[in-house]
């Protein structure tokens, strides 16, 4: 399936992307239509699929528009909640087993380090740390999946 462009009002001022129904083949990467839209947005706004390497165009936008684009294109609520709740399983299902092992090891290591440094902390603190780490995991998921599918590398 090819991606077609149509003239029309678009927030970024250019042509808007129109994808057909079903799955899309975005330059040899067979993904669903929603993932194709996400991948295209990541390619336009971020360098090499890394969230902290934003393009100059994206940096020039006001912060409100940047947040609106990011959360509507990269973090749809259903996908974000799914990865937040089932992070390691989602990563394994998508084929990112190496990142799953590294992230789980890092999260366990961080919790052990916190337990060694602050032995008198309450269990609720560790639950909050776990919730924060799950949020980081969910926010990295679209970029990690882009790097796996589009760039064919996990790191």
Task: Using the alpha-carbon principal axes, give the shape.
Answer: globular
Tally of individual domains: 2
Question: What is the number of helical segments per DSSP (H or I, 4+ residues)?
Answer: 6
Low-confidence stretches: 1-25
- The sequence of SSEs as H and E is EEEEHHHHHH
Computed over alpha carbons, the radius of gyration is 18 Å
Q: Percent helix among the residues?
A: 55-70%
Order of strands across the widest beta sheet? 1-2
What kind of sheet is the major sheet?
2 strands, antiparallel
Sheet-strand content, in percent, reads 5-15%
Oligomer: single chain
Structural class: mainly alpha
Arithmetic mean pLDDT = 78
Number of strands: 4
The N- to C-terminal Cα distance equals 28 Å
Structure description:
- With 155 residues, this protein is mainly α.
- It has 2 domains: 1-74, no CATH class; 76-155, no CATH class.
- Helix content is 61%, strand content 9%.
- It has helices spanning 33-45, 56-60, 63-74, 77-93, 97-117, 123-149, and strands spanning 4-6, 16-18, 23-26, 29-32.
- The protein has a two-stranded antiparallel sheet with strand order 1-2. Strands 3-4 form a two-stranded antiparallel ribbon.
- A hairpin with a 2-residue loop joins strand 3 and strand 4 (29-32).
- Helix 4 crosses helix 5 (97-117) and helix 4 packs across helix 6 (123-149).
- The longest helix has 27 residues, at 123-149.
- The protein is globular, with a radius of gyration of 18 Å.
- The chain starts with a strand and ends in a 6-residue tail after the last helix.
- Mean pLDDT is 78; it is low at 1-25.
């Amino acid at each position: 399936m090819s991606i077609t462009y149509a003239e029309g009002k678009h927030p970024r001022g250019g042509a808007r992307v129109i994808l057909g129904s079903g799955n899309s083949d975005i330059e040899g990467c067979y993904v669903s239509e929603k993932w194709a839209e996400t991948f295209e947005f990541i390619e336009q706004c971020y360098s090499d699929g890394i969230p902290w390497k934003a393009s100059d165009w994206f940096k020039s936008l006001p912060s409100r528009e940047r947040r609106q684009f990011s959360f509507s294109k990269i973090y749809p609520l259903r996908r974000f909640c799914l990865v937040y709740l089932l992070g390691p399983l989602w990563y394994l299902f998508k084929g990112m087993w190496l990142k799953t092992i590294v992230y789980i090891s890092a999260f366990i290591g961080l919790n052990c380090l916190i337990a060694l440094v602050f032995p008198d902390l309450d269990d609720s603190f560790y639950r909050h740390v776990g919730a924060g780490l799950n949020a980081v995991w969910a926010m990295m998921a679209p970029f990690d999946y882009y790097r796996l599918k589009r760039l064919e590398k996990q790191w």
